[in-house]
Amino acid sequence: MGCDDCNPQIPSDPMPVPSPASIGRTCTVVWFRDDLRISDNPALDAAVRRGRPVVAVYVLDETSDGIRPLGGAARWWLHHSLGRLGDRLRELGVPLVLRRGAALASLTDLVKSTGATAVTWNRRYGSAEIAVDTAVKTALANSGVQVESFAANLLHEPWTLKPTSGPHYKVFTAFWKAARSSGPPRPPLPTPGGTEPADRDIPSDALEDWQLLPRQPDWSTGLAATWTPGEDGARERLGCFLDQDLPGYTRLRDRPDHAATSMVSPHLRFGEISPFQVWQAALARGDESGVDKFLSEIGWREFSWHLLFHNPGLASTNLNPRFDRFPWRDDDDGLDAWQGGRTGYPIVDAGMRQLWTTGWMHNRVRMIAASFLIKDLMIDWRRGEAWFWDTLVDADAANNPASWQWVAGSGADAAPFFRIFNPTLQGRKFDPNGAYVRRWIPEIADLPVSLVHEPWKVTTGDAGGYPAPVVDHAVARRRALDAFKGLKD
DNA sequence: TTTTGAGTTGTTCGA
DNA sequence: GTCGAACAACTCAAA
Fold it and tell me: Which fold has domain A321-485?
C-alpha cells in the first residue's frame, strides 16, 4: 500500500521504566477484550497507577450466552494481535494470561488464584457482552474485589447523546451534529511506564493451542501480505494515510483503483488504536481538506454502535418491521456465485475476490456488492452480513449489520428503495480505466476499457472463461422495484 | 402540540 | 451529450 517510504509523524512510545520487584503484594487484573493496545488504554492505565503488579488476561469466550463467535478472518487477526500485545505488555512487566471458556468462570478463577484485589476493563456495548460484564462485576464485587470499567473505544458513550424527543438518534446527520457540538473528545492517554513485575508463573493457555489460524487449507497468505496486526501496524497505517492520502481523500475515497482510504478499520475493530488517537492525529493535520470527511467516517462508526446499543437485535431483526414481509429469494446458486466472485458483473466480482484474498473490500465496492446481493438477487441481507462477518478482518458487531440494513433500506437513515446500484455504471464511474477489476479478475485483464465492465458484450473469444451475468440487471431491477412496492401498506 | 424541513454514497427518462 | 424531474411515502428532529 505504498507505506514503506513514509515516516509516520505520530511519536513512538517511550521505553518502559521497570520498578524494583516486590514480593507478596496484591495485584491488579486488566481484562483485555476489543482493546488490544497499551497506549490510550484507560483500564491498563488505571491498573498501573494502582502501583501494584499488573496481570493482563484475554478470555476467548465461545460459550457465554449470546456471544457471537468470531469469523475466520477475525480469528486470524486475533491470533497475531494477541501475539503483539503480549510482547508489548511483557516490556511493561505485565504478563498476558490466555484463558478459554466462559468469562465469568475464567475471571473469578484468575482473581482467586492470583489474589487480585482489583479488576479493570474497558466497556463493551453489545447486549450479550454487557450481560457478561455485569455478571462478572457482580460476582467479583460480592467477593470484595474492586471493579472499575472505563470508556475507551467510542468517543461518546451511547447513552449520552439524546435527541430532544425520542429515545435515541435515528438520523446520522442529527446524531453527528449533536456529537460534534458536545465538546471535543478527550486527548489520548500516554503509554504507561513499567510496573512492578508480576508473578510470571500464572497458568496460561498457549496461543497456538487456540488454533485461530487456518490450516488445510491455509487461506491466510493474502491477509498476511496485506496487514500488520497490532498496535505498531495500526499507528503506521494511520500515519501513512494522514501523510499521503488525506489531502486527496474527498476526491479519491470512492475510487477502488486508488489506495486512498485509511484501511484502519480492522485496527479500530480490535482496538489496536483508539478513536481518540485517530481523532487527535487527524485534527493535528489542521484544516486540510478531507479532515472533516474522514472524521465523519469515524462518526459513522460511532453511529453504528449507538444503533446497536439501542437495538440489540441489529444483526438479526429489520429495524423497519415492514421489511419482515419482503419476499427474499432462496437462491443458493446465486449466493454461491456472489460469494465466489462469479456473478458475471466485474465490479461485484472484483470486490468479492478482493474480500476473499485480503479480508477487506473497498467501501464503495461493498455498497455495490451488497446492493447486488439484496436487490439484483433479492437474497436476504442477513446472508450477506453473515458472509462479511466470516471473511472481513474489520467486521464488528455494529458496523457490519448497520451497513447491511442501510443498503437494504430496512435500517436507520436508510437508502431509499429506488436506489439500486447499476454495477456497470458504478464500475465505469469509479473504476474508469478498469484497473481495479483487471487486478482482481485476470480473465478480463486484456479487455479494452470499453468492454471491461461489460464483458458479456465481447464477441470474439469468450472473455477468458469469465462467467456470463447470473441475472440481467435491467430485469432484476424491475423485479426488485416491484417487490418493494409490495411493502406498502 | 403542531409544523416544517430534511434525510451519505442513485438511476432512468424525456426534453 | 446534458440536465432536471421523477421515483413513495415516511419518519425524524428541532423549532
Answer: DNA Cyclobutane Dipyrimidine Photolyase, subunit A; domain 3 (1.10.579)
